[in-house]
Amino acid sequence: MRVLLDTNIIIYRENSKALNYSVWHLFRWLDKLNFEKFIHPLSKEEIMQYRNANPAESMMLRLDAYEELKTIAPMAPEIEQTFSSIDKDKNDCVDTALLNEVFSGRVDLLITEDKNLRKKARLINLENKVWSINAFISYATNANPNLIEYKMLAVKKVIIGDIDINNKFFNSLRDAYLNFNEWFAKKCNEEAYICQDDKGDILGFLYMKTEDEYENYSDIEPLFSPKKRLKVGTFKVEATGFRLGERFIKIIFDNALERNVDEIYITLFENRSELQMLSELLNRWGFQKHGVKRSTGETVMTKQMKVYNPNLTVKENFPNLYYKRQKFILPIYPKYHTSLIPDSILKNENEDDFLEKTPYRYALQKVYISFSRERNIYPGDIIIFYRTGDRGRAGYTGVLSSIAIVDEVLSGFESKEEYLGHCQNRSIFTKEELESFWHKYGANQIILKFIFVKSFNKRPILKTLWDNQIISFPDGPRPFTKITDNEFNFIVEEAETNLGRYWR
Fold first, then answer.
1. What are the tens digits of pLDDT across the range 180-194?
2. Within 10 Å of residue 145's Cβ, how many Cβ atoms?
3. Is 104 within a domain?
4. CA distances from residue 20 to 75, 173, 206, 266, 276 in whole angstroms, order as listed
């Protein structure tokens, strides 16, 4: 496969000051998969004008590692018609030239960290061929699980003083914050979340603190009103293809609910690629730009808790839920249940069998595929997962395990590629299994994208549903078994689970 690399990718890799794990990980995958790496002649010209790298001459020597496109594709009429009135300067024209190479079929993929370039790709239906670093790594990880170098990733809470401050993971934080080491030392007795691979390399770090109504926010503009807040003090996650960012987002939300705060906020610079990606991730989950921190110039992003905004999507509102929605029971076979919802592991299951080795286990938004004829499902609807029981003993071994919220409902796919694209890294099924579903059912299936909310503290059994006429004996729940509000409330009460903090 022929991969065209945008100017920013080359600069991130070749600049000796840019210690970016994600870029390193990208090139590891390109080499593993024997993909050809190309650079556009116009990108080469841009790099020669890049004055922040060590010096331009040595940068040019390192460009020999990339094969330059020997010719530039003639501008396709569709490309020229779409962008001639949009492109305002030379940089815009270079971006269009790169897209034209993909459109013309001279290269298979374009990898860029420029979100505006990816937006332009969507205008000409090239979004499946113009990817960010993280999107490419996700693709490579999902398609080639046998080439993953680490056996597992573990997110855990630790005492900060037990973390090696000299780990290279923290280099970018040291560069951004002059007193980072001193700050780290002062926090030695506090807790943080880290993610490490089986080799001990740190791939994610999250520190949070609770602030009350009397906190001094004079450095933030516009000034915060008095509220109880959760401050995301330090948050960094590398692109691994395992959707670690979503795993940490869930931890942030869980802490916000547990600490009963009114708002979450984070300050971050947006002048580096990994922070731009983090900003985009936060924005997808409902964080919005509030203003700036004057002393550092950092962007301030906030997310409201205890408020459900009907103008926002389900994902942007999460974990705030709207109670007045349809409610369903959704069965899932045991062999898929805990793999898809690892937080809902049962006591009789071996946790070692469900180590976090696959991307969909980290994803906060996941995929459930159904061949049911039921189509009356909508974003915001509430589902209770039912882990099916053993034949002959289902009344006592079939259990209700957890609750989730419907984010998207997709059907009527125009192509296999579109269908597979929606499932990537979020489904428990392999690519081969998904292709077999497509061959058998075609577009006549539902992709249900859902967001995991909470595991039940106690697991009501199927017999309880029989005894209370929620499900007719001797049947089990069918896909999308609709239940009433009273039946839903009864199940939650039987599960001894408090959902009160979620409803708005």
1. 999 999 999 999 999
2. 13
3. yes
4. 34, 11, 18, 21, 13
Distance from the Cα of residue 187 to its chain's centroid: 28
Amino acid (1-letter code) at residue 56: A
How many structural domains is the chain composed of? Answer: 3
In this structure, the answer to whether residues 351 and 485 fall within a common structural domain is yes
> Residue 467 falls within a domain, yes or no?
yes
Residues in Cβ contact with 108 at an 8 Å cutoff, skipping those fewer than 6 apart:
1, 2, 3, 102, 129
Domain span at residue 361?
A: 327-494
Can you give the pLDDT at residue 141? 67
Residues 66 and 170 grouped into a single domain: no
Please write down the HEC assignment for all residues of 17-55: CCCCHHHHHHHHHHHHCCCEEEECHHHHHHHHCCCCCCC
Q: Residues 309-341, buried b or exposed e (16+ Cβ, 10 A)?
A: eeeeebbbbbbbbbeebbbbbbbbebeebbbbb
Sheet containing strand 36-39, strands side by side: 67-68, 36-39, 2-5, 109-111, 130-131
DSSP, collapsed to helix, strand or coil, labels residue 130 as strand
In a domain, 222, yes or no: yes
pTM: 0.73
The structure tokens listed for 13 are 């890799």
Both 245 and 349 in one domain: the answer is: no
Q: Domain end: 275, 306, 337, which one?
A: 306
- The secondary structure element, H or E, covering residue 160 is none
DSSP H or E run through 1: none
Distance, in Å, from the CA atom of 130 to the CA atom of 151, rounded to the nearest integer, reads 29
Report which DSSP code applies to 374. -
CA-to-CA distance for 84 and 97, rounded, in angstroms? 12
Are both 362 and 283 inside the same structural domain? no
224 and 117, same structural domain?
no
How many Cβ atoms sit within 10 Å of the Cβ of residue 373?
A: 9
Summarised one tens digit per residue, pLDDT across range 125-155 is 898 899 888 778 777 766 665 554 444 456 7
274-306: pLDDT as tens digits? 677 788 889 999 999 999 999 999 999 999 999
Residues 302 and 375 in one domain: no
Question: Average pLDDT by consecutive 10-residue portion of the chain (504 residues)?
Answer: 89 58 79 90 79 50 74 93 91 93 94 89 90 80 57 74 91 87 94 84 91 96 96 86 79 91 93 75 95 94 95 95 96 79 48 40 78 88 93 92 94 88 74 88 90 91 97 94 97 93 85
User: Does 295 lie in the same domain as 437?
Assistant: no
Q: For 259-331, where are the alpha helices, taking DSSP H only?
A: 273-284, 314-317
- Check whether residue 86 and residue 235 sit in a common domain: no
Domain of residue 106, CATH code = 3.40.50.1010
Helix (H, G, I), strand (E, B) or coil at 400: strand
- In one-letter notation, the amino acid at residue 318 is F
